[in-house]
Amino acid sequence: MALFPSRTIFLQLGPLNITWYAVCIMSGALIAYLFSKKRMSDRGYSDFPFSDFLINVLIIGIIGARIWYVIFTFNERYISNPIDIFKIYEGGLAIQGGVIAVLPYAVYFMKKHHVDILKAGDAIMPTVLIAQALGRWGNFVNQEAFGQIITEAHINALHLPEFIKSGMYINGYYRQPTFLYESVLNILGFILIAYVISRFLKKDGCQFALYFVWYGITRFIVEAFRSDSLMLGSIKMAQLTSVVFVIVGVIAIIYLYMRKNKESV
Asked: Residue 231 pairs with which residues in a beta bridge?
């Protein structure tokens, strides 16, 4: 049951309902787009057809995120009502699945338009953290991505605004606001990667790789507090995928600097 059902609707246009969930996702995508476009221009790609890229990435990303979610939550609901698989507006997108789905298309698009993949990755991937941060607020409205049961004293100690505290009262219990933890850490990650760490790791591709390291660590930690995780047997799928993200990111950074050293010999 979503929090305050009438308030999940942002705007009604006749029979069409625009949900807060959609608004959060699209707002995050728009802000990430504006940052990415500027960062691509700074790298010499001011003519890059970013609008075309964004539209396709959104479609592929949402499809990939939904497929990932459905695969690991497949149950009697989807067997009895297959149409529910397509009810994205009710929530149920797995971000990691979206990222994995988008990467092959992004590589194809960059090659097609003769764009350096590493430079493009540096420009775009850190901004994905912004989109993810805002998307988590859509989870908050839908009462998804919540954490373990905690006491009222515990949630009071977090000094949260009253609307967040109320939103974290789910099925008779207060819950860890894991959506907020991840949202804050994602914004922090974007700032650190784009404006701090990039001053020290200047090799093309490092910011691209650091996205996977940062988000992998962030998601692994936050997932430990969640109680609605997608599972693979007894393993939290998001944590398993996060470990892979971190390993890939670290190996990529090491490779980039080893390659640089070899080239300078």
From this structure: 236
